[in-house]
Amino acid sequence: MCLAVPGKVMEIEERDGTRMATVDFGGVVKEVCLEYVPDLVVGDYAIVHVGFALQRLDEESARRTLELFEELGLLQEEFGDPWEAVTAQEAMQAQEARK
User: Fold this and answer.
1) pLDDT for the residue 42
2) How far apart are alpha carbons 42 and 87 in whole angstroms?
3) Residue 13 and residue 15: Cα distance in Å, rounded?
4) pTM surpassing 0.85?
5) In sequence order, what are the residues at sequence separation of 6 or more whose Cβ sits closer than 8 angstroms to the Cβ of residue 21?
6) Of 1, 9, 59, 79, which is the most exposed, with the fewest CB atoms less than 10 Å away?
7) What percentage of the chain exceeds 70 in pLDDT?
8) Which residues 6+ apart lie within 8 Å of 65 measured at CB?
9) How confident is the model at residue 97 (pLDDT cuts 50, 70, 90)?
10) Average model confidence (pLDDT) for the chain?
11) Which pLDDT score, from 0 to 100, does residue 67 have?
12) What are phi and psi of 38, to 5 degrees?
């Protein structure tokens, strides 16, 4: 199943001419392309599908949706162990790059 999942923009940077963001999906952090919603800023919430932010979302709607996904077990299904492993690997690489 494919879902568009709400997430909070934590950091924004330009990478090779593309606006990218670090986005928190209720504890799972991933890199997301902002090219479809270029006016997003840190602290905004967005609906994300396959790594692309598609639309801004208000915080209350985002939180309710994440809670519902969690209750239904959809976040586990969508962001199961493979995402967690990649997230940990990306975090370690980012930490090493900052040194």
Assistant:
1) 97
2) 20
3) 6
4) no
5) 9, 10, 11, 12, 13, 31, 32, 34, 40, 53
6) 1
7) 71
8) 5, 6, 57
9) low
10) 78
11) 82
12) -70, -15
Of 5, 2, 48, 39, the residue nearest 19 (C-alpha): 39
Tell me the two tokens of residue 37: 């919603």
Residue 38, classed as helix, strand or coil, is: coil
Could you identify the residue written with the tokens 């919430």?
45
Instruction: Tell me the pLDDT tens digit for each residue of 32-72.
Output: 999 999 999 999 999 999 899 999 999 888 888 878 877 77
61's tokens? 């709607």
For residue 63, what are the β-bridge partners? none
For residue 18, the cross-strand partners are 15
Neighbouring C-alpha atoms within 13 Å toward the C-beta of 5: 28
Structural tokens at position 35: 């090219």
* Length, in residues, of the chain: 99
Q: Which residues contact 91 (CB under 8 A, 6 or more apart)?
A: 29
